[in-house]
Amino acid sequence: MKRALFFTFFLLMSMKGMCIYIVENWDSETRVTYTVDVDNKTAKVKEGQYIETWSSEGMEVEQNTIPGNPEASGDIIIRDKVFAWGTYHPVTEIGEYAFTSTEISSVIIPSSVTYIGTCAFKQCYSLKSITLPASLTGIGELAFYNSSIETIISNIENPFSIGENMFSSNAYDDAILYVPAGTIDKYKSAEGWNRFAHIVEMTHTSIGPNQIESKNTPEQNANIYFDLQGRQLTALPTQRGIYIRNGKKYVVK
pTM to 2 decimals? Predict the structure, then answer.
């Protein structure tokens, strides 16, 4: 069984006489880097950079984005915590430009994350599916803009307002937005979310990277599989890919 390797890099930053300890933790399985703020005891998916180059005359000549995780690709499950300096730190944020223009195809965001940064998944042309946790309280501008999203699984019970350019027009017109049971009217009236033409309530299931809540017993759930689009399978999966079983990642190679 393939196991992830973690490489930790320690950075010591000095600011106004104070020492701030920053740890970078790289996951070899998903090729995602996590930045740990040791002082605040939290972590986030490493942010990227947006660079503008200007000429001596003050004319803008070039715009360039450097993603925080340029090697990330395929199906990504963000970790809910990372280990550094003898303890675990919850991953609470996905940094701005974290995955911009990368080749990821799906992403599941854990229940520890409360914020997704500006342009975090912008121009991810292979990105088809995203899963948003109930813990999310904010999303930066253009976070999913110009990506090829077809399926959004949202576990947010009380949808907050999002910018009109959070997603591209093709997502608003064609993608399916799955929402928790009993919340469809909230989404249809929430700014930004109400632009989606296809909003579907999830019936008695809430799917996330760390949990599957249902009316079934734990023994029944152990034999139920979901794909990354939130669809329950009718049999044991045989096609290569990542699935969810009993709240855990199940990989068919």
Answer: 0.73
